[in-house]
Fold:
Amino acid sequence: MTTNRISSALRGALLPLVAALVLAGCASTADLSSGVTTPAQFREQAAANVSSTPVQADGAWWRAFNDGELDTLVERAAVANTTVQQAAARLAEARAVARAVDADRSVQVGLGAGGIRGAGLDRGDGSKRAASLITAGATVSYEVDLFGRLSGASNAAALDAQSREALLQSARLLVQAEVAQSYLALRALDDERAIVRDTVEAYRGTLSVTQSRYRAGDLAELDVVRVQTELASNESDALALDRQRAQLEHALAVLTGAVPSQFSVSTAEWTTALPSIPAGLPSTVLERRPDVAAAQRTVEAAQARVGVAKTAWFPTFSLTGAGGYASSDLGDLLKWSARSWGIGALASLPLLDGGRREADLKGASARLDGALVSYREQVLVAFREVEDQLAALRLLDEQSVVQARAVASARRATVLSDARYRNGYVSQLDLLDARRSELQNRRQALQVKSAQYQATVALIRSLGGGWDAPAVVGEAAGKPVVAALR
Structure:
């Protein structure tokens, strides 16, 4: 009867506390969508659908460029890139931690043996003589997770592992994009080097003719010096481009896990296809971005740890059991008569801890606030990156059209200047200016083309590795992207 009264009194004292803490926990759910409401589609694109280059179903977006050498480089980087390997190691570590934390929820079983000798081990028989006690057996313990402390910690660790998994995907996507951009920049440099080398050869021919005419007395020395200046200037540009190519080739070597001295990319014609991006991309394509998913998992883990910190005000309950043998004589230890067992229960509730629990809760809440801010920032950065690249592609398309007209006009001007120079109507300086303008415009056109490829890769990375958006049903369109991500 006394035991029942004590139990009833404990329940009466604890139930109000339990109810208050549960209500507090329910009221502290993090609002991921606050301040991140997004439009149905990106501002820089029209709503009409147009045909686009399809993306591989397995996520191999780089194959849309239809370049076998690019495919080979990306596949090598997927295996040997050190950044990806580091991210994979961090994921393995996070999964191991999650398994270790989850193990606390299981029954703990152990084996043990020990011996002790001393006087007064058993006061029951009134003996003060020295005696021995030898034990061997198994112990079993289990913490009853009434208030979710263990399950909350396990859930938080599992969310950490999911965040690391998303970060591994983000690292892979980043490396794939870096490989593609470096390779495409190298191909653009090869074409630019070819243009400059052709120009150098042209100036060498012009210099030879000019020197002959100078020796014949038809031209002044100034004309020879002008051609020599242009030739040297273009030779210098060609060497600068060679240096840039070597640096890009070395960067590709590191990205693919190779030693730069043992790595090379052959010089070939730039035939890489430029994928077309569909218009009217919905904002929900950002759901595929792994860095956004990682930030969300970090918020959810921080929120789970706030709940774990709150359970510090609850008592803990543990069940224990032990069974084995105990004897004062080693020879009798394993006899049936020496068997022993025991079961127990332990309830623990700290009362005074100097404010440790309150400080832990405030710290967990502060980390949750920081994770929320980081998440919202990541979402905003994602939208900015997509809008940046969409704007870049739109303007680059317009610029390429204008630049093509400039190249055509510059070529025509060179032809006309050459003809007029041969007939003595214009000076050599006019001809050199026309050639210089043509070279500048051809290089500018190539740089615009290269920028289009770079922006396309950057857009694909910003979209999370593709542009096939998940289906949006009913009222989901136009809602905060964070709501869809949940």
Summary: The first helix runs from residue 2 to 26. Residues 9-28, 47-51, 469-486 have pLDDT under 50 and may be disordered. The two ends are 52 Å apart (CA to CA). The first strand starts at residue 108 and ends at 119.
